[in-house]
Amino acid sequence: MNDSPHLPVLYKEIIHALQPRQGGRYVDGTLGAGGHARGILEASAPDGQLLGLDVDPQALAIARETLAPHEPRIHLAQASYTTLSSQLKNLQWDSVDGIVLDLGASSMQFDTAKRGFSFMHDAPLDMRFGPHTLQTAADIVNTFDERELADLIYEFGEERNSRKIARAIVDKRPLHTTRELVAAIEAVSPRQGDRVHPATRTFQALRIVVNNELTSIQEVLPQAVASLRSSGRLALISFHSLEDRIVKEFFREQSKELVNPPYEQIYETERKAIVKEVNRKPIRPSEEETKNNPRARSAKLRIAEKI
Question: According to a count of CB atoms within 10 Å of the terminal CB, is the N or C end of the chain lower?
């Protein structure tokens, strides 16, 4: 979620975490509308540079306008952050001073009805971050068997009613729009007052699978750490427990130091810690920010510094 009607999620905290400086090199791997990137460029003026990546051409076009005053210090590419290493190689950057990744879908994507990310709008079941992704949410709900659907809704949506929902989806197929999917879900899992909408977790699961989100996070983390210079920082914002768990476990593992391993652990060798965790507990948005931007309420920021 890379942007809000005002500032991007955890904007001040990101700028404070990365501590942009003159002449520094930075990466925004989830560029969105360019809010975080603009802050980094302003703080690293007059000669700091930034590489911005996004698979969404609509987001990239908006970011290009947002960041136009900072030409020629910006380098933008329509690409996934999983290509980070090759993108840096193309620029002949051997290391960078800071990287920010704001995971998940952006507010702009949720608010663009035709993209199919939100159950609040009726639209085709698409949910792709970028046009080069072949499989849509409609492909999944109409071709996966009931068990496959139940498993992915449970695993990626952490939805307790996954089996009932999967059965309802199969019974109502074919489903082509978000409204049709919501109706199928509500038939077996009715809405209850102000509680989370019963379609929320299923929509999350489908979006994660369509865009291969969790695997992408696992792919980019080692590249990001390897790309940082000494004392460079990696800042990641996640929006649900599955993302945060991957980031937390990776940071913990990379911050471990193994000296004189026990004899019986013959496959363990002495190893120095690669990063240190700047914050052991995630940084959460302020009450003021969540009031202005309700979508920020689940955001968690974790920061690691290269040793």
Answer: C
End-to-end CA gap in the chain: 29
Give the other-Cβ count within 10 Å of 199's Cβ.
Answer: 23
What would the two tokens of residue 206 be?
A: 């489908």
Which residue bears the tokens 């202005």? 292
Query: 11-108+213-306 is classed in which CATH architecture?
Result: 3-Layer(aba) Sandwich (3.40)
Residue with tokens 């369509």: 210
Q: Any idea where the domains of the chain sit in the sequence?
A: 11-108+213-306, 134-210
Quote the CATH superfamily of domain 134-210: Putative methyltransferase TM0872, insert domain (1.10.150.170)
Query: How many CB atoms lie under 10 A from the CB of residue 18?
Result: 25
Please give the model's pTM, rounded to 2 decimal places. Answer: 0.90
pLDDT digits (tens, 9 = 90+) for 41-65: 999 999 999 999 999 999 999 999 9
Distance of alpha carbon 146 from alpha carbon 169, whole angstroms: 8
Q: What is the DSSP secondary-structure string of the chain?
A: ----SSSPTTHHHHHHHH---TT-EEEESS-TTSHHHHHHHHHTTTT-EEEEEES-HHHHHHHHHHTGGGTTSEEEEE--GGGHHHHHHHHT-S-EEEEEEE-S--HHHHH-GGG---TTS--BS---SSTT----HHHHHHHS-HHHHHHHHHHHH--TTHHHHHHHHHHH----BHHHHHHHHHHHS---TTSPPTTHHHHHHHHHHHTTHHHHHHHHHHHHHHHEEEEEEEEEEE-SHHHHHHHHHHHHHHT--B-S--TT-TT---B---EEES-SS-B---HHHHHH-GGGGG-EEEEEEE-
* pLDDT tens figures, 194-245: 678 999 999 999 999 999 999 999 999 999 999 999 999 999 999 999 999 9
